[in-house]
Every structure is written in structure tokens, then in C-alpha cells.
């Protein structure tokens, strides 16, 4: 790690120099946010021709692309048996499930190689959905593509907007899953501090306003704005607008990783929704949504929404790596959301949010019962985590406490250093309430964690 005289922490990569003057939005040239590799890459010749297959065109391309004949597929149909809506379930063993069927051309498409951005009908539904939820008119400025989970899309996005060694601004503590692709790029990770409302505009302005003149400026900032993993913090509407103003001043692209957006009982307008209040033409937010928390994590489906140029660059990477995400998973999700409609999806999401809110309350009550006086935390409005600060107990680095006292007591939590790009010491531990048995294990775990903290205090003369 290198710390310059302005206090900016720079890790993961060699020094690079470049222009120190941010470009204004009105002077952006085509491809400004794309990496050098992304500007030079395009989908290969065969897959690039597939977009021209349409009624009236006799195509010999599909066979060249290796598409098998669907007559050989052994599947006649896929039937989905749906549970009753989450808010109206009963224990009646005779309750009949709602059945949805995928068959005919929809099944053929699900079982076949598909378009790299996603099945056309699914993407069309998602565009309508994003337009309705975030109040963005459909048009030429943005689109949606589908990936193998939002993690897959984010990893590819880093590759298409960053050159090796480029600086990138990251709200910290940060979701640890984004760190491996950044390390692979040898990116310089710049930690932006957070407070109870998430990323701090003051910290962001201080870093950018004091940026060393001989170092290449960042053009990307990563945020996890609702129920942040791990901090639990959520960016208010006012906070998001303040961050957008700074992004306008320094011409930054926002990567909005928002898998817990629908787990908030009261939804906060997204960066994607708010950006046109600061950038009238949009184009400065790439948003990542996930179906993992709402439908099924094993479906491995997420979707990105943002500028067409950037999403096309992601598609180029996907085409060369895996061709496309699972068309079967897409077809299952599409059949479900088509059945629900936007209103039905929103109702389901609200019930999921209520479910986790109740779990959070019970888990947090147990934490207060056993940890008050030893720890503090931000009460999350969404997400699945309590980011517990042990500094009131005198803990500066939670790692040894987790690996020694806590493990010996039979309780595990994630030590905070794992969520800092530079691996610095942290007084925090991350606990999750999504799956733990709230009737038995949760209280036992809190009792053991409190006991472990007290043992640590004795060992370190803090009692």
C-alpha cells in the first residue's frame, strides 16, 4: 500500500500517470468510459451475424454457429408449480399449486443457444419493468442485458471500463466479492469512507479535490447503496443526489450494485432513477439487479441496466467466454414474471422485504440483549446483515477474536478486515440473519459472541 501526502490510500497495482483534468459531460467523446481493450474488441463474425436473422431472411448462419436442431431435444415441456403468494400461505396440504408451463417456441428458445444479451422477450419485459420502477423513459440512451448473476456482470464491467492498473473509487467497507476481479486487473483501489447514510460525499470530494497531479484520475466509483453488504447502511435520496453532483463535477461513472433494493420496506429512489436530475442525458450509471434474493439464488440470473455502449462491451466479453447466460433460467424467470406482471412482482418483493424485516428485528433484539455495552451497529433498513462494531469493548482488530475466542466458544462471524480492499485492521464483525435458526441458534450464538468478547477483554487487559 502507498499513502501519498494527501492521505489517499492506493493499493493493488503500479503507479500510472495521465490527464489530471476531468472532462465535462458535454465534451464526452464516444467510448470515454471504456477500457482500451473494450474499445478494440467486437463480437466474433459468426455470432455477430446472428442479429440479422429475421423473417424473410434465409439463414445458413445458425448451423455454422453450431445450433442443434430442437427436434432432437428430449423435453416436451417444463411445468412450474408455484407456491401460494408469500403473504397468503397456509399449512393446508391439499392446497393446489399454480401451474405454469413452458412449451412450444418458448421452450425451443429456452433449450437453444440464445442471444448474448438475453432472450428477447425477457429483456423486453425487463426494460418495461425498469422503466416502470425507476421512472426512466425507454429510448436510445439505455438498455438491459442479462448475466449469470449480477456478480458475473460486475466482474465483466470492471474489465470493460478499467485498464490494468487504473484507479477505482470504492465505498468501504465493501462487498468482498468485487475484490478478486479488481485484483486481477491490478486496479488501484481507492477507499471512500462511509457513514450511517453510506458513502460520504465529503470523503469523495476530499479524495478527488486533492488528487495528485501526476497520477491518473479515476473515472469509476462503485457503490452498494441499499442495505449495503456488509455495513447495512443505505444511501438516502439526498445523499445520492449529493454524490451525483460530485460525479458530475469530476465526470465519474457510477456502478450501482443494488441486490438488496427490493428488501427495503420503503424503497429509496435509485441512482439510475435520479441521475437525469443531474445528467439530463443520463449515461453515467450502470445499475446491477439480482434475482437471487427474490426468486432463487441457484438460477444465477442478474441483469444490468445502463448505457448501451457499455452493456454492448459486456456482451462482447460474454460472447467470447460463455456465449450467454442460461436460457432455461431466463425462460423460467420470464414465465413467472409474465404471469405476475409488474404489480405481482412488486407484491412478492414487498412480502420478501417484510419477511426479512421481521427476521432482522428478532435478530437485532437478541443482539441488544447480549451485546449492548460491548458493541454498536447501524440498524439496516434492508439486506441480511448486522455489521457489529466491537470498539466499545476495546477491540481494534476483530480477526484474533473471531479465530480464537469466538471459534473456541462455538460461534463464527466474518472478521471485518475481509471487507477492506487494503486488508486493514477492523473492529467489526459481520453477522447474517437470513438463515440462522432464530428460535434457538441465534440467541445461543449471541451469548457465545458476548462471552468471547469478554474473554478477549480479559486476555488483552481490557476488562
From TrEMBL:
Its cofactor is pyridoxal 5'-phosphate. Residues 110-433 form the Aminotransferase class I/classII large domain. GO terms for biological process: alpha-amino acid metabolic process. One of its GO terms (molecular function) is transaminase activity. Gene3D superfamilies: Type I PLP-dependent aspartate aminotransferase-like (Major domain) (3.40.640.10). Residues 1-33 are annotated as: Disordered. Keywords: Aminotransferase, Pyridoxal phosphate, Transferase. Belongs to the class-I pyridoxal-phosphate-dependent aminotransferase family. PANTHER family: AMINOTRANSFERASE (PTHR42790), KYNURENINE_ALPHA-AMINOADIPATE AMINOTRANSFERASE, MITOCHONDRIAL (PTHR42790:SF19). This is Aromatic amino acid transaminase. It comes from Papiliotrema laurentii.
Amino acid at each position: 500500500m502507498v499513502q501519498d501526502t494527501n492521505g489517499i490510500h492506493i493499493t493493488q497495482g503500479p503507479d500510472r500517470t495521465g490527464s489530471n483534468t476531468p472532462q465535462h459531460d458535454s465534451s464526452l467523446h464516444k467510448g470515454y468510459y471504456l477500457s482500451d481493450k473494450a474499445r478494440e474488441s467486437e463480437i466474433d463474425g459468426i455470432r455477430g451475424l446472428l442479429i440479422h436473422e429475421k423473417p424473410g431472411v434465409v439463414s445458413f448462419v445458425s448451423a455454422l454457429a453450431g445450433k442443434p436442431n430442437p427436434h432432437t431435444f428430449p423435453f416436451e415441456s417444463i411445468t412450474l408449480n408455484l407456491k401460494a403468494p408469500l403473504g397468503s400461505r397456509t399449512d393446508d396440504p391439499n392446497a393446489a399449486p399454480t401451474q405454469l408451463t413452458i412449451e412450444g417456441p418458448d421452450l425451443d428458445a429456452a433449450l437453444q443457444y440464445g442471444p448474448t444479451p438475453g432472450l428477447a422477450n425477457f429483456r423486453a419485459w425487463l426494460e418495461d419493468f425498469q422503466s416502470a420502477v425507476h421512472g426512466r423513459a425507454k429510448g436510445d440512451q439505455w438498455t438491459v442485458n442479462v448475466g449469470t448473476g449480477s456478480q458475473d456482470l460486475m466482474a465483466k464491467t470492471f474489465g470493460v471500463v478499467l485498464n490494468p492498473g487504473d484507479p477505482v473509487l470504492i465505498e468501504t467497507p465493501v462487498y468482498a466479492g468485487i475484490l478478486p476481479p479488481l485484483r486481477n486487473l491490478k486496479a488501484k483501489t481507492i477507499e471512500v469512507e462511509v457513514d450511517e447514510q453510506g458513502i460520504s460525499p465529503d470523503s469523495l470530494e476530499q479524495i478527488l479535490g486533492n488528487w495528485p497531479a501526476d497520477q491518473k484520475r479515476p473515472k469509476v466509483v462503485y457503490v452498494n447503496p441499499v442495505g449495503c453488504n456488509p455495513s447495512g447502511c443505505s444511501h438516502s435520496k439526498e445523499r445520492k443526489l449529493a454524490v451525483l453532483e460530485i460525479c458530475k463535477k469530476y465526470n465519474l461513472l457510477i456502478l450501482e450494485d443494488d441486490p438488496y433494493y427490493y428488501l427495503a420496506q420503503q424503497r429509496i429512489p435509485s441512482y439510475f432513477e435520479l441521475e437525469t436530475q443531474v445528467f439530463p442525458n443520463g449515461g453515467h450509471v450502470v445499475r446491477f439487479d439480482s434475482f437471487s434474493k427474490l426468486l432463487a439464488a441457484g438460477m444465477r440470473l442478474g441483469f444490468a441496466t445502463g448505457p448501451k455502449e457499455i452493456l454492448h462491451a459486456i456482451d462482447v466479453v460474454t460472447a467470447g467466454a460463455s456465449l450467454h447466460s442460461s436460457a432455461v433460467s431466463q425462460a423460467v424467470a420470464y414465465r413467472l414474471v409474465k404471469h405476475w406482471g409488474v404489480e405481482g412482482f412488486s407484491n412478492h418483493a414487498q412480502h420478501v422485504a417484510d419477511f426479512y424485516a421481521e427476521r432482522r428485528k428478532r435478530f437485532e433484539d437478541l443482539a441488544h440483549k447480549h451485546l449492548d455495552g460491548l458493541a454498536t451497529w447501524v440498524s439496516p433498513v434492508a439486506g441480511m446483515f448486522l455489521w457489529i462494531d466491537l470498539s466499545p469493548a476495546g477491540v481494534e482488530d476483530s480477526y484474533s477474536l473471531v479465530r480464537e475466542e469466538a471459534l473456541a466458544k462455538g460461534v463464527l462471524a466474518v472478521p471485518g478486515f475481509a471487507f477492506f480492499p487494503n486488508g486493514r485492521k477492523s473492529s467489526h464483525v459481520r453477522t447474517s440473519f437470513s438463515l440462522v435458526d432464530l428460535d434457538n441458534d441465534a440467541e445461543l450464538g449471541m451469548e457465545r459472541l458476548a462471552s468471547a468478547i469478554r474473554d478477549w477483554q480479559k486476555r488483552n487487559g481490557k476488562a
